[in-house]
Amino acid sequence: MSNGIERKKGINHIGIAVKSLKEAGERFSKMLGEVGHEETVSGEGVRTLIFEEHMIELLEPVSDGSAIAKFIEKRGEGLHHIAITVDNIEKKVEELRAQGFVFTAEKPSTGAGGKKVIFIHPKSANGVLIELVEERE
Ligand code: ZN
Q1: How far is the CA of 98 from the centre of ligand 1 (A)?
Q2: Which of 14, 23, 44, 114 is the most buried (most CB within 10 A)?
Q3: Exposure of 54 in the CB half-sphere (CA atoms within 13 A)
């Protein structure tokens, strides 16, 4: 996510799948007391609303075939992924692959904020989709 707050370790943000960015955005805005900013990640088929201070990312599908659309269809709205900060994503992916971790894509792609991201498959993380986000020094 395009985050003014630089975090080098730990949780980068939490992703929540929603049907309507407008409706959920208003609710979260009231809850958090923060105005989010919108960003479309066309590669992933999602529109996001990012609350930087609270490290929360709402995700709305923009196309029926997108991963978020399928997720909502199967499981309904809710917690979608947890993103972890890494400093060198290629190196991290290589290390984790060598240890048997499975990713949802071959290579990192460009996520919100123009950052390099990749997802670890939930089957490699006890049922949780984990996003790695590169934050370079
Ligand atoms: Zn995310």
Answers
A1: 24
A2: 44
A3: 18
